[in-house]
Structures are given as structure tokens and as C-alpha cells.
Amino acid sequence: MPAFGRPGRLPGQSPPVWRSRRENELFAGRDDELERVWDGLCRHGQLVLVPEGNLPDIGETELAGEYQHRYKLRYDVAWWVDCGQGADIAAQLDELADQARARLADCAADGAPVPGEGWLLVLAGAGSPEEVEPYLPGRGAHCLIVADRTADSWRERTLAIGPLRRRESVMLLTSAAPMVDPATAARLGELLGHRPGLLAELAGYLIRETAVTPELCQRLLEMAAARPAPAAVDSPPPASSGTEPSGGTEPTVRAGPAGEGGLAVGGRPVVSSEPMGPDGAVGRFGGRRAVGDQGAAAGSGAAAGSGAAAGSGAADRSGAADGPAAVAANPAVGGGGSAHADGPAHAQATAAREVDALVAALMRVEYIADPGGFEHWLDELTRLLGRAVALTSPWLAVRLTTLVTEAVREPGRGMLDALVQSLDLVAPRDDRALSVVRRLVTELVARRAGGPEPAADARVRAPAPPFVSWPLGDGVAPSAPPPPRGPAGAAAYYFFTSHAHRHDRDRVVAFHRELEAELRRKVRRRVEPAGFLDAERMGGGEHWPTALRDAVRTAPVLVALWCDDYFESDWCGREFGVFQERIRRATAPGGKPPAGIIPVPWLVREADVPKAAQELHLARIDLGRKYDNMPVLDLMRHPDAFAEYVSLLAYRVMDVARDELPPLAADATKLVRSPFHPES
């Protein structure tokens, strides 16, 4: 199979037949493992991903989801199949056959599609590959299986997934929880075994429990690690590490991958008494079969594991609710352990569960899973509340967790009611997830009032939202486009801070926040001057994270922190190049180009400015002879002078934003390369 895009496909375009988990915005690293998946599928056609050493929270399901998104140009069919407990695999394959007949030219309308080259099936949530073998197509198609364990007949076709590398742990934790500095993130990664699920749960806990600092979590984990192990006691042998119930009657605890690669929802295991496995039927690519309730909801279990844009990946393979911010399973982090039912620990745990459940339900509302839809909802929520809620993170899961935490903690029901009312104003009425959100809020309010909880509506199935990916197959949004946030409304962000990945990340964050705060003091009330700051730096690679790509192609102003490292960074060059391309396209023949880019002297440079950036000039901001030639990083040591600099810089950003630089299409954005090193 050729290692390039299928004929006629544009960058970023999904295959004609496509069903997936939502793309995980917080996915970090794993480039080598993704290449090994591709190589293994090309060599064997079928490959099973299992956790190395039976470790939980490794992220094998998130890896499979990332592979499907990152390699989608190489397939005409890419289909995610949920194989968890209760999932109707056959119904999902029947739906695939229907889609293939409708969308693929080489499939007869009345015949059974024959999977072959250009097909990818991802079967996630199996106990072992043998459980899904009856459903696998013949040779030619790529079949990627995510299982708890392998089998002897699959040894050569097994790829064991281990913990993250140290730098990948730092990328994940600092991206999901911006308050964590890289050194602390590295130590927390070591204490948690560099397992993405645990790191994601910790990040969610830090986002929700604002009184808890990363340093306190580090101390608690170090104390827990230093304690001697308890003496061994005689106990019955543990049940099988798989997912099948012992004896077929006792419930099985499925400790699913809480937060594989992203923020987690419930680090708690899910108990189920239903046996797992295929129903014995074969040949599912041909023939029409009625889809019952389980089949209709089959996609939801698989999708639930990913969470929207945040990559929560929290649901286990049985289809548990997805969403961010679970209390860490480790007692040192999550406040676990027994507590009196009426004590503060019990109240805190109850509030945590309420946040988890409501965030999980909101993550299933398809409209707000889209960045533009979320901003539309946030605008309506702000209007109903009569005040703004500070959301500093670009990641959907983090923003939802912040909103829900404030709503749950706020006395009274005002903000909870506003959450539901604003959703009713913007989201399509046929989204079943809305009913789940309303029910959870109603139950929460009833518990607070001390009254009886409303009876559950038997027609509402919480874990069964529609299984769709964004955008939908035909590219049509579910409702009218949301109102914009930026100047004259074109952009989701008012400015974009472009910086090199260095050991001054804390200073970059401080600079970005000061500029954002100053803009809020200066712009008109109807404008939300939120800036985008990439909390992580990916290093090399071709994959544009969705949030970064959308921000850099739509924000009207690039604030570039110039230093020698900036001009050596390929990512900085690509961000700079996107704005150059936008400026070029916006400039009429013989006309004056819009500014678009504001260079900031971040450090003293030793090398020359690349030719592509030489036409730009650093804006002179008169701060007096003592500070005139001082780079901004050093200027931050002088609070009064720095405050004056940021104030004047904010006016400059407002002037440039008025040019209303047109956005660049997402497909064109992916093609841009760094102009700093055009020969590379």
C-alpha cells in the first residue's frame, strides 16, 4: 500500500467512508509507535495493540484513534468499531457496508462490499484478538485491534505499548494543565510511571481543584512512594486480568484506560455483569440487519473514550461516559480513602463526581464539541449570567471543567440553569445528549434542595449519543454558524502568541496573560480579546494540532517573540509563514499590505534575521533611555517599565487587529512551510 495520500484527496480531508473518535487535541508524542503501527499493518495486514506488561492507563486506545486521524489520507475507508461490553459489532459492520455501497464507486448498490486495499478497520475494546477474529475481513484491508491481551496465534502481529517518554509526559501534563512547569511535570511523570491516563487524571484534578498546587501533588506522591509496602497477606488468587466474568455471573471490574493521552473522566472502574464477546455471527459485510438499541448506540461507546477536542479518552472500553477532570485514583492525589459519609471528604468526593458526570454529558453535545459552537454557547452563557467566566485554556475539556466546577460550587442554581438554557438556545434540539445534561442538572439541583430526585426517564439513555465525527461526512455543520468573537468578528482569537520552545516558558505565559489582561481593559465590551498560546511545542513532525491550526489561520494578529531560537524553530517558521501567506492573499495589486505580524524583541539576537522576516521592523516603544534597548524578557524584571510596554503594545495589537486579516483555509494552512529555511 503506498505511503501517501489516495488519489484526488486534499490534506485534512476525511475518507469517503469515515467513522471515528473525535481527534484528541492533547495527544502528545508517540511518533515512533505510530510509524510502527503503519509498518506492522503494511507487513501483516492485521495488528493488535496491547498494554505492555498489562499496565493500565497506557493509552493504546488513544494511539489507535490518533493513527486513524493522522493517516486518514492513505485510506478510502476508515471505520471505528466498538467491541466493548454490550456493543453490537455486527450492526456496526452492517452500517459500514451501507456507507460503502452509497459512497464508493466500485461497490455495487445491491452487493456486499469486499474490503481490500485502502480500507482501515479499527476494532477497539476487545478482550483479545481472538474475540473479533470472526468479524475480520480477508486479505488486503488493514485491521487494527485494541485489546487487553494478545493470543499465541497473534504474537508476531502484536505491538505492546509502553509508558510515555519523559519529554512526552512533560508535553502532555504542561499542555493539559498550564499551571505545571516543565521541571515539576517531569517529576510528576516519574512518580506516575509516565502513564498518560494517570497524568491526564492528575491534570483534570489540578484544573478542578484550584486550591491544590502541582507542588503539593508532587510532595504527596513522593510521600506515598516512600512509604513501605504493606505486608503480604494470604488472599484468594485474583481473577483473570481479562474482562470476562468469572463463571459468567459475577460482575467484572473493567478498569478501562482512564484518559488515554488526554484528560480523564472517571478513573474509577466500571462494573458490569454482562458477558462480553461477539454474538457468533459471521459474514457481516453482506446483508442488511436490523439495528436494535445496542447497535444504534454502538458508536457511542467507542467515541466516548476520546472526548472532544480535549482528548479525554476517559471512558473505558465498556462505553463509560467520557469527559475530563476525574479525581485521581491514587489516594495521594485524588483524596481517596474512606471518610465519614457526612464529612468534608465525602462532600468533596460528591462534588467531584457531579463535575465528572456533567462534563462527560457536555462532551457528548456535538455542537459545543466544535470550537466555533463552543464559543457560540459561551457567548449565550455570558449573556444570561451577566458576567464573563475566565477561561484561559484553548482546550475544550479544560474549559468545560472550569465552567462546570464553578457552576457546581456556586451557591444556588443560577449558573446551572444558565448552562442548560444557553445550550437550548444554540444546540440542535434533536441531540439526545441535551436530555442527559438537563436530567443531570435537575438531579443535582434536587439533591441540593434535599428533595427527592426526579425519576429517571426510561426513554433517555445516557451512554448512547449519536456517533458522528467532526466535521460530518458531507461537511455540513449541524446548525447555523456561531457568532464570532474577534474584531469585526472574523476570528476565534484576537491574537496569536508565537514563541520558541525554551526554558523560559513561565515568562512566556506571564507575558501572554499580561497582554491579554491589558487588552481586556482597553477593547470595547462586545469584543473578547482572548489570545492563543500554544501550551506545548511539538518539536518536529508534520501534524498540525487542530486547535493550533485553527487559531493561527484565523487570528488577525501574530505576536512573534523574536530570538535566535525562534528563527531556528520549524513550528515558529510555519506559524510565521501562515500569516505571511494570509497577508499576501489579502494584499490587492499595488495596494498596501495589512500588518498582521508584530515582532517583539524577546531576547538579544546574535544571528541575523532571516531574509523572509527582514522587511518587518521592531516597533519602537519609548520607555526612556534606560529601557529602550532592553529585550522584553529582561524588561519583565522591571515591573513599572514592563507594564508601560504591555500597555503600549496592546494599543498596537488593537491597531493591527482592525485590518481584519482574512482567514486561511485549513487545507491551505497544512501546506505552508517555514520561510526561514526554504531550502530544507
TrEMBL record:
SUPFAM superfamilies in alphabetical order: Toll/Interleukin receptor TIR domain
Which Pfam families does the entry link to?
A: EAD2, TIR_2
Q: Which residues form the TIR domain?
A: 495-624
| Positions of the Effector-associated domain | 359-441
Task: Read off the InterPro entries from this record.
Answer: EAD2, TIR_dom, Toll_tir_struct_dom_sf
Listed GO biological process terms: signal transduction
Q: Which domain of life is it from?
A: Bacteria
| Region (Disordered) location | 228-324
- Low complexity compositional bias: what residue ranges? 292-301, 311-324
**Can you name this protein?**
Uncharacterized protein
Protein species of origin = Frankia alni (strain DSM 45986 / CECT 9034 / ACN14a)
Q: What is the lineage of its organism?
A: Bacteria, Bacillati, Actinomycetota, Actinomycetes, Frankiales
